[in-house]
Amino acid sequence: MKYKELYKAKATPQLIYKLEDISAMLNLVSLKLQHLIISIVPDMMKADLIISHAGAGTCLEALELKKDLVAVVNDSLMGNHQVELAEKLASEGYCDYATLSSLNSVLSNIKTKKKIIFPRQDDSLLSDFLRHRLEMD
Description:
By secondary structure, this protein is an alpha/beta fold. It has six helices and five strands.
């Protein structure tokens, strides 16, 4: 798959790569930058590839939308739970995982991997569990 456009929704204080460099790595046609948005979900829905920090909410939103995801963690943070999440999602085949130092390499190889579709959540699991546990069956 060829990606055509890079859209960056939020300024990142520790950006190692310039957006233009990432755009060149992926052979993108255009680049957009927007500093303030109300909701990123509409843009995520239009995206083919999402490069994001490895926060649980963002990762799950991207995967539920069946989007290619590169979850980037800052491995210099102490007690960084994002590393555990990103490594697990990547080991299951749902996304690619990168650190700031490995991002270039991951982006260079992103089109060669086949991703596994993240399963839909079962909305009835919690209510069924509570009904059973509270003996409401």
